[in-house]
């Protein structure tokens, strides 16, 4: 299965190709996507993205995870979260969300087993 293209991104809205849902924040992986609901893991801008936010994507067998920190990069990504990915043999890219989507789509287009979590506002 290939990773789905992120078809559009604007403040507070993301669309994934092949999916009718408009997301605010989303998780994507080879073969699927869903809303990234921060309430599931108690995530906030600080301390930010936790390993628990990434477990679902990691379990899909990805080789790279792209983390979009928001349009103004308000969402933090602690070193422990990047270490979690590295310990699982997964490359981590942590970027401003517009750049993260560009990088994710480029990797997906090359057939890389890439996943991601993206915050579409601040």
From TrEMBL:
Location of this chain's protein in the cell: Cytoplasm
Cellular component, GO annotation: cytoplasm
Keywords in alphabetical order: Cytoplasm
One GO BP annotation of this record: positive regulation of fat cell differentiation
Coiled-coil regions listed in the entry: none
Family note: Belongs to the AAMDC family.
Protein name, UniProt field: Mth938 domain-containing protein
Organism: Apteryx owenii
Lineage: Eukaryota, Metazoa, Chordata, Craniata, Vertebrata
């Amino acid at each position: 299965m290939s990773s789905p293209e992120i078809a559009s991104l604007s403040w507070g809205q993301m669309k994934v190709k092949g999916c009718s849902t408009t997301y605010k924040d989303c998780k994507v992986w080879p073969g699927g996507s869903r809303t990234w609901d921060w309430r599931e893991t108690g995530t906030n801008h600080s301390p930010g993205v936790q390993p628990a936010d990434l477990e679902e994507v990691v379990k899909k067998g990805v080789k790279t995870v792209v983390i979009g920190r928001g349009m103004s990069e308000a969402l933090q990504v602690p070193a422990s979260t990047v270490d979690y990915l590295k310990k699982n043999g997964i490359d981590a890219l942590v970027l401003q969300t517009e750049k993260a989507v560009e990088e994710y789509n480029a990797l997906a287009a090359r057939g890389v087993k890439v996943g991601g979590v993206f915050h579409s506002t601040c």
